[in-house]
User: Fold this.
Amino acid sequence: MITLRRALAGSRNVPAVKLAEKLGIEKVIDVARRFGITSPLPPYLPLVLGAAEITLLEHTSAFTAFPNDGIRIEPHLIRQVASYDGAVLEEARPKVHDVVQPETARMMVAMLRDVVEFGTGMKAKELGRPLGGKTGTTNEFSDAWFMGFSPSLTTGVWVGYDEKISLGNKETGARAALPIWMELMKAALEGKPVEEFPNVEPLSKLALTKQVKVDTPDTAPTEDEGREKPPAKTPPSVPPVKPPEKSPDNLEKKPQT
Assistant:
């Protein structure tokens, strides 16, 4: 048994399917719609493992609600249009949606921070900032994702082809998408002060208030999908044993006729 905290950090599939089965897949779809997902979502359990195809813009927009206390602002490409003397001619007024309660959003931030702290997104710790995010990998390594955020910036990276073609063996979200996301965030946040997530209590503190019997501690090293596995050890080769050479004394004598 593992907690949902560790299941998310380690990108475990079985707990996600069991949770969706318990809650009902229709409720899962309803929540996804609140987060701004408009792409078709088939009502069967593999949906929670990435069986549906959604756009990068939808995915990134949905993740903005977590560090924004549950509020999602519809994406827009132009903030404002101004004249040469600074007069604002036109300004975007995107729709604002209350997606989830602030407490729920903060809990999700804490869980997604654990993905970076000891889960499949550990490589992002190299940026030296409070960050949260989630890796994603589809069957046969045809799509690699990383959705992540700082307290003030949310970005997403997708790596793949227009058709279902494999990126190559072990080209996971942590290996193919996360390094691109890190390069982008490093450039975007360069020279800016380090921000903390406001009102987000680390799950390591909350875990101390409840005793849960698990097979593996939450913070134990996870199976990082971007980490190289050590080569398997092979036993030393044993030189073949040559059969003893036959001497005239031990040659089999043929009967004379």
